Amino acid sequence: MQRLHALICTCTNCISNGALKIKNALEAEIVKNSLENDILVVQTGASGLCVKGPILTVQPEGIFYQYLKEKDIPNLVQEHFLKGRPVKSLMYVSEVEKIPIPKINDIPFFKDQRLIALRNRGVIDPESIDEYIANDGYKALVKALTKMSPEEVIKEIDASGLRGRGGAGFPTGKKWQICRAQVLKRKSSDPSASAYVICNADEGDPGAFMDRSIVEADPHSIIEGMSIGAYAMGATEGYIYLRIEYPLAIERMKKALKQAKEYGLLGENILDTGFNFEIKIFEGAGAFVCGEETSLIHSIESKVPEPTQKPPFPAESGLWGFPTNINNVETWANVAMIINWSAVWFSKIGTETSRGTKVFSLAGNVNNAGLVEVPMGITLREIIYDIGAGIPNNKKLKAVQTGGPSGGFIPARLLHLPVDYERLKEAGAIMGSGGMVVMDEDTCIVDIAKFFLHFTSDESCGKCSTCREGAATLIEILDNISNGEGKEDDLAFLEELCLAVKDASMCGLGQTLPNPVLSTLRHFRDEYIDHIKHKKCPAGVCKALVRYSINRDKCTGCTLCARECPAKAISGTVKSPHQIDLHKCTRCGICVKVCKVGAAYSE
Amino acid sequence: MAKLKPEDLERIAQKMKKLINLREGEARARVIVHMGTCGIAAGARAVMTAFMEEVEKKDLKDVILTASSCAGFCSREPMATIELVNEPAVKYVDLTPEKAKEIIEKHVIGGNIVKEYALAAGSERVL
C-alpha cells in the first residue's frame, strides 16, 4: 500500500505541454530514491486547469503543482516525497489570493445572513429539477414517506418551533395537528373525504417581495414542503395561490410542477410509496384581501373573495367544505430543511419564542436594498446599518416600518430591538410577512401613515362597515391634519376610531389597518402636534404647511425666480427685493432651486 | 421520463453534482446570470445575451452558461457569478453587456478576475 498517490494529468493538452516527459522523469526519480513502494504514479484525465499544465496532484494532501518542467522533478521528489516538504514555488496559487478581492463573507451584506428558506438562491437553475435534486432536493420527501409516520412528521415540525411566516406567526406544527385531527374525523365516516393544502403566495404588502423571490429562485422547495405537509395531514390535493402580477414566478412554478410530475414526484404512487398528491396553480387577480385565508378559499371557489367569520376555521371546513391547511410560501420553504436537518438543529437558530430565520425585503431609504434572510433575534440596527449599509446621502434614520400596511412604525431609538414575533409586537409593530421599509428624516409621519391607509382603504372588500367607513374617515382626519386644518381633539378621536375598527372588523385586513396610525401616534405624537398646533410639517412634505418666502436682505433682485415661477406668484422690480404671493404659490419649490444667492427659502 | 424510485434521486444528484461542481466532465467554467424579476428589470436579459454572443463568438465549448435567481443584492443588479474549476466563485455586480464581454475575455478565458467589477469571492453561508 502506497503512502502517496501522484496524479499526473495526461490529457491531450497536458501531453502537448510535456506531461509524458514529466511522468517518465517522476518515475525515474522515484526509483532513484527507492520510493517505488511508497509512491504510486497515476495517469488521470483532464482536471480542468490544463491551461496551467503539466499539472500534478498529490493525494491525500491534495497539493496541486502546475507548470511543471523536467528540471523541477528531482527537487520535487527529494523535498516533497522523501522529506515531506511540499515545494511552494511550484504550487498553484489561487487567483483570488493573488488579486485581493474580498471574500463574500467579509462583505457585511452577506456576512450576517443565514440561508435556509433561500438556500438555493442564486446557486441552482430554478428551471432544472435535477439541479434542485443535486442540492439535497426531495431527500426530505423520501425520508418522510419511507421512514416517518405522518404523526412523526408533525411532531418534528412542532418541535422545531417553526411559526407561520405569513405574518401572524401561528405555530405550524399545531396548525398541521389540528388539520390532521379533522381529516381523520372526516375519514372515519367517509373514507373518500378529501383534504387540501394551500400555499399562500398572494403577497400584497407594498415594498415586499420575499415570496416572489422564493418562488422564482426555488419553486421545488415549495412543492417538496407542500408534499410533506400533505402526507402529514392526509391531503391529496394542493393549490398554490399565486398572484397574476408575478409572471416569472408563475412560469417557473408551472415548469417545476411539470417536471415533478414527469419524475413521479407528484401524481399517483409517489416514489413507489402509495402516496398520492397533486398540485394546481390558482392565479389570483391581485386583491389584497385574498391573502386572508377565508377570502383566498372563496376566491378559489369562484365566489366573491370576501372573508367569512371564523370559526369554522379552514382546518374544520375550508376549501369546498373540506379540511384545509394554508401556509405561506416561506413557511413551506422551511419544511424540507427541518425534516432533513432535524427539529433540534432548527430550534437552535433564533430566539426562545421565534426559531429559525426570517426573510425580509429591505427597501426604502437604505443603501443596500435587497432580499435578506437573517436569524431571528438579530437587531434592527444590524439589518439596517450592517446588512443595509445605512441611509443614503448621510441622512438620519427616522423610522423603520415592518409588516406592511398591517404593521407599525418603529422609531430610530428602538433600533436595538431584536427581530422576534413578541418583541416587535411589544413595540407596536408586527413581524408580518417580511416587508421592511426604511424611512429617513425627510419622511413625514402623517403623510406616510396616510399612504398606507389609502392602500388598505382601496383594498378593503367593503363587507364590514368599520373597515370600509373607518378607513375612509381616518384618511379624512389625516388629510385635515396635513392640510393644516387639524383640531386638538383629532388625536383622541383618531385613537378611539382606530380601536373601534380593530375590534369590530371581521378579518385581519380591518383588524390591522389602524396599526400605522396607532404606532405613529405612539412613537411620533410630537409630529402630529406640530402639524395641528404649530401648523408645521417638520419634514417639509405636507405642502399646505410649507411657506415659501424671500429674504429681503439677501435678495439681489435678479428676477430669475419671478421668471421661473410657474404660478406667477413672485413679483418685484429689477434690483429690488422680490416677494411671494402665498395665495398664488403652489409650493413647488422651484424658486428655492433657482435662487443663486440663497434668498428664497421654505419653512 | 420514467417515474422515480427513492434510490433514483441519489443517482440524479451524483450526476448533477459532477456538472455543477465542474469536476470531471468537459466544462472548465460556469457563468451564472442572476435572472430574478429584479435582475431582469435592471437589464439582466441584455447581459445574458452578451454572454451568449461572446461564448459563441469565441467558440468556448467548455463554458456552461446558465441562469439562476436573484442573489439577494437587488440594488446591485444585474449580477453574475463566474466559477472556474478549482477557484472560489466570483460575484460581479452592476453589469452591462460591455462588462460581460470583458469578463468573458479576461476572467473566463484569461483566468484573471476583473477586479473593478467584482464584488467578492466565495459562496454564501447556507444553513
TrEMBL record, chain A:
<keyword id="KW-0479">Metal-binding</keyword>
<feature type="domain" description="4Fe-4S ferredoxin-type">
    <location>
        <begin position="576"/>
        <end position="603"/>
    </location>
</feature>
<keyword id="KW-0411">Iron-sulfur</keyword>
<dbReference type="InterPro" id="IPR037207">
    <property type="entry name" value="Nuop51_4Fe4S-bd_sf"/>
</dbReference>
<dbReference type="InterPro" id="IPR011538">
    <property type="entry name" value="Nuo51_FMN-bd"/>
</dbReference>
<feature type="domain" description="4Fe-4S ferredoxin-type">
    <location>
        <begin position="546"/>
        <end position="575"/>
    </location>
</feature>
<keyword id="KW-0408">Iron</keyword>
<dbReference type="InterPro" id="IPR017900">
    <property type="entry name" value="4Fe4S_Fe_S_CS"/>
</dbReference>
<dbReference type="Pfam" id="PF10589">
    <property type="entry name" value="NADH_4Fe-4S"/>
</dbReference>
<dbReference type="InterPro" id="IPR019554">
    <property type="entry name" value="Soluble_ligand-bd"/>
</dbReference>
<dbReference type="GO" id="GO:0046872">
    <property type="term" value="F:metal ion binding"/>
</dbReference>
<dbReference type="InterPro" id="IPR019575">
    <property type="entry name" value="Nuop51_4Fe4S-bd"/>
</dbReference>
<dbReference type="Pfam" id="PF10531">
    <property type="entry name" value="SLBB"/>
</dbReference>
<dbReference type="InterPro" id="IPR037225">
    <property type="entry name" value="Nuo51_FMN-bd_sf"/>
</dbReference>
<dbReference type="InterPro" id="IPR036249">
    <property type="entry name" value="Thioredoxin-like_sf"/>
</dbReference>
<dbReference type="Pfam" id="PF01512">
    <property type="entry name" value="Complex1_51K"/>
</dbReference>
<dbReference type="InterPro" id="IPR017896">
    <property type="entry name" value="4Fe4S_Fe-S-bd"/>
</dbReference>
<dbReference type="GO" id="GO:0051539">
    <property type="term" value="F:4 iron, 4 sulfur cluster binding"/>
</dbReference>
<dbReference type="Pfam" id="PF13237">
    <property type="entry name" value="Fer4_10"/>
</dbReference>
<keyword id="KW-0004">4Fe-4S</keyword>
<comment type="similarity">
    <text>Belongs to the complex I 51 kDa subunit family.</text>
</comment>
<protein>
    <submittedName>
        <fullName>NADH-quinone oxidoreductase subunit F</fullName>
    </submittedName>
</protein>
TrEMBL record, chain B:
<dbReference type="InterPro" id="IPR036249">
    <property type="entry name" value="Thioredoxin-like_sf"/>
</dbReference>
<protein>
    <submittedName>
        <fullName>NADP oxidoreductase</fullName>
    </submittedName>
</protein>
